[in-house]
Write a structure and sequence with these properties.
It is a single chain. This protein has 214 residues and is of the alpha/beta class. The protein has four helices and twelve strands. Helix 1 crosses helix 2. The structure holds guanosine-5'-monophosphate. The site of guanosine-5'-monophosphate (5GP) has 19 residues, from strand 4, strand 6, helix 3 and strand 9. Guanosine-5'-monophosphate binds next to strand 4, strand 6, helix 3 and strand 9.
Length: 214
């Protein structure tokens, strides 16, 4: 267990589980978009690692662009979406796939997907690495392609930050997190406290830390 900003985090998803989930999502997109040339829109900052990993497995002709928006302060949603870096590309007639780090209430993606439709996109779909089904308030923001479903807890690592910090997972404290012993059951997509798992390489950047929600 480690503490950041007064919260307790434990390791909950391993590097290999992350990569397996990314490959699964990429495969589904590759199959669904055969014959099309999607425009991926990566939502900064949180999705940068997921987008980078995902694109390595996309076999389609495609483009990628970036936007930056913010709806969170610390661990709380403000309920308001601020566009910090707006969309530069013309999406008219394009098949757009948004790449997001995590869908919580869905308010951010609900607003952004509607904006893209209003701009004339031919289709708008969403891939989010993580998804919190129990927190979702906007059904239309349920990601069609997601890596893992998790409980409604606050999670950091693999690009997801806490107040702009601790997104990388390189800090020595990550090692302390590993000692806590937490398992992930990706088959029924429940994340929880459990038995001690085998150790992972602490210097890989792909660790998730999650609040002690049980
Ligand atoms: P929503 O609009 O779905 O309520 O929240 C989506 C955005 O809030 C995400 O893009 C992310 O920036 C932030 N967010 C939601 N849940 C978490 C979380 O558990 N951890 C982190 N680091 N950010 C979160």
């Amino acid at each position: 267990m480690v503490r950041y900003e007064g919260m307790e985090f434990v390791e909950s998803i391993s590097a290999s589980e992350i990569q397996e989930a990314v490959r699964r999502v990429a495969q589904a997109i590759n199959e669904d978009y055969v014959g099309r040339e999607p425009l991926f829109v990566c939502v900064l900052n949180g999705a940068f690692m997921y987008a980078s990993d995902l694109m390595k497995h996309i076999k389609l002709p495609c483009e990628i662009t970036f936007v930056r928006m913010k709806s969170y302060e610390g661990t709380e949603t403000t309920g308001k979406v601020n566009m910090l870096i707006p969309l530069q590309e013309d999406v008219k007639g394009r098949d757009v796939i948004i790449i997001e780090d995590i869908v919580d209430t869905g308010i951010t993606m609900h607003a952004f997907m509607n904006e893209l439709r209003d701009l004339g996109a031919n289709s708008v779909e969403l891939t989010s690495f993580l998804y919190k089904p129990e927190s979702l308030r906007y059904e239309d923001a349920k990601p069609k392609y997601y890596g893992l479903a998790i409980p409604p807890a606050f999670i950091i690592g693999y690009g997801l930050d806490i107040n702009e910090k601790e997104a990388n997972g390189y800090t020595p404290l990550m090692l302390a997190a590993m000692l806590c012993g937490c398992t992930t059951n990706t088959t029924n997509t429940k994340v929880g406290r459990g038995e001690q798992t085998s150790c992972h390489n602490p210097y890989q950047q792909c660790y998730y830390l999650i609040t002690d929600f049980i």
